[in-house]
Give the backbone structure.
Amino acid sequence: MHLQQSIDVTAVPFKEPVLKIKTQKVGESTITTLVEPPISPYFSVYKWDVAGELSLTRGQRSYVLASVIAGSGSLEVDGKVYDIKKGTNFILPHDIKEWTLTGNLSLVASNPAES
C-alpha cells in the first residue's frame, strides 16, 4: 500500500467497524462471509467449514487465497486431487473456475473485491 492509501484507511481515534457477518449452509458445510464491500472496498474474507464435500465456483473473483486453519481433507481441481491439512495455503488463480473441498476442515479464504 502506498503511504497516502495507508493514511486514507486509518481512523484516529479508532472506530469499531460494524460487520455484517452472514452464514450460509451448503449441505452439511457452512460458508461464513466475514468481510466484504462496502465494509472493505478492496477484498472479501470468508470462512469455509467443510463437513463432507463442498463444491465452489470462482464467480467474478480474479483469484482466491485460502489457508487451512483446522482439520484435513482434499482439494479437487480439474480432476486432480491434492491432500490438504492444517497449515496448507494455496492460491486458486483466475483460470480455475470451480473446485471441490472434501473432508472435515476449516479454511479462511479471501479474494479481491468483485468488480
